[in-house]
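Submission checklist for the structure archive. All mandatory fields must be present; incomplete records are returned to the submitter.

[x] Identifier: AIG1-type G domain-containing protein
[x] Organism: Synaphobranchus kaupii
[x] Residue count: 213
[x] Sequence attached
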Amino acid sequence: MEASKAIEEKKAVLEENAKQRLVMVQDKRETLREIMNEAAHGFSDITMVLLGRFCAGKSSTGNTILGKTAFDTTSNTFGCVKEEGEVNGRKVTVVLTPGWHRDFSGQEGTQNIKDRIKQSESLCPSKPHAFLLVIHCDSSFTETDRRRVEEHLSVLGEEASERTLVLFTWGDKLGETTIELHIERWNELRWLVNKCGNREGTETPRTTGSAVT
């Protein structure tokens, strides 16, 4: 009985925290295209850089942003790829960076990915207006994941987090669970979203069954 009561109390706390989070971020919760418009306010062009580990859904997200099949979703990305398009009358540049391995900590491989992420800025026609940190929401988010994100974002400088939006992909996989409750269940994920100023959104794929990178 005591164990069951403790579980129910913990569940109630998580749900209440999730409600508070929704209130806190609802002014910032927009569709992906609305977020783009906000980031590009006052600019005729917009440049975005997509970051995340392997199989997070970066290529699919890039295609959604540009409104066309610009990035290959059937293979992994090992180098930075730039694609452009016009969205709502603006020229949009999207730079896709290679993903890091979730559990791989080899110094040489990790440094190689960091170097390529840093090089992504050289492909941008202007200073990136926004960094989209893409996270597959249908998975756990541990301390290892948090450290991986932090070490790879660090190569972009301290101010990068001020222009970073956490974008959760495959939102339909959560079922009836809200993204706020999902965030509250993982301390490390909550830390990350808070670090990025509670700027977060959810993207549901248009099609299923295709590989994502």
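[x] Structure attached
Curator remark: The radius of gyration is 17 Å. The CA atoms of residues 11 and 185 lie 9 Å apart.
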